[in-house]
Predict the 3D structure of the following.
Amino acid sequence: MESPVRDEQDDFKDDGRGMPGSQTLTRGLELIAAVAHRPLPLAELAEQVGLTRSTVHRLASALVEHRYLKLNRGSGYSLGPRLLELGYLASRQANLPRIARDHLEQLAAQTLDTVYLGVLDGSRALYLDKIPGSRRVEVSAGVGERLPLRSTGLGKALILDGDEKALRRHYEHEARLDPGYGLTLDVWLDHMRRYAVGGYALDLEENGDHIRCVAAPIRDVTGEICGALSVATAAQYMDDRRIEGLIVEVKATAGAISGELGYSPRVERTRSKVLKGRRGR
């Protein structure tokens, strides 16, 4: 179905919702969004945003002049270098603990359990934030502590994208430091494969007696894992049935934080195809 084409004169009409300049800005932003995933020639770009070619040409020319768009011979308009500069500055301003804090507090209030935020720090999980739960349970890990990857839910979530070689390396490194871990390599790898498919990770009393946790990775604008969050409490408050519900809540919170960092599921689909291609070679 064809999109309705707006007349060029519409750019100079005030529909009561704002000044003409704001309408022009909105339509300029629509052009940028339209070419976000691939270059588009003028005719296709005009059809996609529902404007006349002359209007699109005028708006796109201004965006090219200011480097928000780039005109390429043969392929049409694509994102310009100014957006790369702004994206870099935005990523520098994005602070994971600051962005995540409200989401962590909300999750702690919903679950009544302790909520953690952490990042990968070498071969350990570094805990950046902790929201204590309201149950009469003390989960001992604190902010600034560095804990194992293979036995903590948060640690597993941080390495969820790793291939088998990388996962084996993590397991074997920690086996040298702590040979008393309860899961064999093969069983642990099987769990990690299942977690990777589901987009979550569990600690079923592996890192501490009677403590369980549900974790999920946080992704940045590139689709890479840049952190993880977890909900932890005593095993008596987290039976198998409750774990199923917590997986949904924890993944939703991780997704909301990821969204604020610029992550899009579309980026993940593209990234997954690339990873599958690499692993198939």
